Amino acid sequence: MSKKAIIPAGTGTPIAPFVPGSLADGILYVSGTLPFDRDNNVVHVGDAAAQTRHVLETIKGVVETAGGSLDDVTFNMIMLRDWADYAAINAVYAEYFAGEKPARYCIQCGLVKPDALIEIASIAHVGRG
């Protein structure tokens, strides 16, 4: 098995020992993605929809850097801080996955920074290589 780190241009230094994505045998694993700017500050504090859009744009960048598109995403793991944000998160999520939806799960939990309202990790099949 070959494994390749996927790091989009302009990516900041992670707050822990990981890379944004890891591609192995055509399967891309996208690390848990929080609504961070390149300096690891939370963006759009208090706005779950804007944070979701930021997270999905970041994931899109990782997938595209690996040679795929969001259509290649087969599974999303969604972690949210408060169920009160569920509808706002789903509204934005539906914009990004308008066609055939990937499988997913969604749980409520504490996140690494208190102002972060959402985190998403993804799996995509972007071909063999």
Explain this structure.
- This protein has about 130 residues and is α+β, with helices and mostly antiparallel strands.
- The chain has one domain: 60s Ribosomal Protein L30, Chain: A.
- Helix content is about 20%, strand content about 30%.
- It has two helices and six strands, in the order βββαβαββ.
- It has helices at about 50-65, 85-95; strands at about 5, 20-25, 25-35, 75-80, 105-110, 120-125.
- The protein has a six-stranded mixed beta sheet, covered by helices on one side.
- It is globular and about 40 Å long.
- The model has no long low-confidence stretch (mean pLDDT about 95).
- Pfam families: Ribonuc_L-PSP.
- GO terms for molecular function: deaminase activity.
Based on secondary structure, the structural category is alpha+beta
* Overall body shape: globular
Give the full name of the CATH homologous superfamily.
Answer: RutC-like
Low-pLDDT runs:
none
CATH T-level fold name:
60s Ribosomal Protein L30, Chain: A
- Please give the CATH class: Alpha Beta
Order of helices and strands: EEEHEHEE
Please tell me the overall pLDDT: 95
Strands, count:
6
Count of discrete domains: 1
Adjacency order of strands in the biggest sheet = 1-2-3-6-4-5
Number of H/I helices: 2
Distance N terminus to C terminus?
10 Å
Helix content: 10-25%
- Strand percent estimate: 25-35%
CATH architecture: 2-Layer Sandwich
Task: Give a short summary of the structure.
This protein has helices spanning 48-65, 86-96, and strands at residues 3-6, 21-24, 27-33, 73-80, 103-108, 118-125. By secondary structure, it is α+β, with helices and mostly antiparallel strands. Helix 1 (48-65) runs parallel beside helix 2 (86-96).
